[in-house]
Amino acid sequence: IMIPFLIIATTLFLSSVIAADEAFPSIPTTFYVAKTLSDDLKPIRREVYGEGKIFDITHRYTQDMPVWESSEGVKPFLRLTTSMKNQSLSNTSEMKLSVHTGTHLDAPGHFHDKYYDAGFDSDSLDLQILNGPALLVDVPRDKNITEFDSSFARFMMDGAKWLVENTDIKLIGLDYLSFAAYEEAPETHKFILGERTRHTYIHMIIRIIPVEALKLDDVEVGMYSLHCLPLRLPGAEGAPTRCILIK
């Protein structure tokens, strides 16, 4: 049976706890709106909904999450530009970070300049490819990762070629910063984001869309319905993406 989506859990863990500051409070683990208002009113955040039927596999954006080729994390990226504590009418935040930070997808323009110039950005990707049946499999690792590590479990070029030549998979996701091996990342990305068959630019069919830095710890392997919705960013070669799995 040909499965159009493949998600691989490499049992890597991205840290999601940061120190509190005025713009980014500390983060609990689940989300729930308290029944009564009080001085200790707090949101509770969660990844699992509907008694295990829906799994949020998107990482929270935090200052210490791993960043490609960096051991320093994202650093402060979110701040309040107006604050009600300073007599402003509302609290308003702004953020600044790479579109390839945290859970995100890559568009063809990430490693193909001709596609970048032609406008094959995150806004041009087909939502039918980003939403559908998916198989979650596990490739065990023996340690957690809280900063950039080039030895993460990943696809080599020959594995990427096998997927293209032997399956009809249209999307692949992993739970680290890249689906491709560190030492082969540019070549493998360029191959996977190329054309599956020859078409005009307008009808170009991407070989496989990679979704990277998924949060797959504590999610059981098996078949799911996958839903990934990237930000619509015309001109951007990638986009932060909210992904969920539904049993």
UniProtKB/TrEMBL annotation:
Predominant location category: secreted
Source organism, top-level taxon: Eukaryota
Keywords from the named record: Extracellular matrix, Secreted, Signal
Location in the cell: Secreted, Extracellular space, Extracellular matrix
Cleavable signal peptide: 1-19
UniProt cross-references to InterPro entries, sorted A to Z: KFase/CYL (IPR007325), KFase_sf (IPR037175)
Family under the similarity heading: Belongs to the Cyclase 1 superfamily.
Protein name: Cyclase family protein
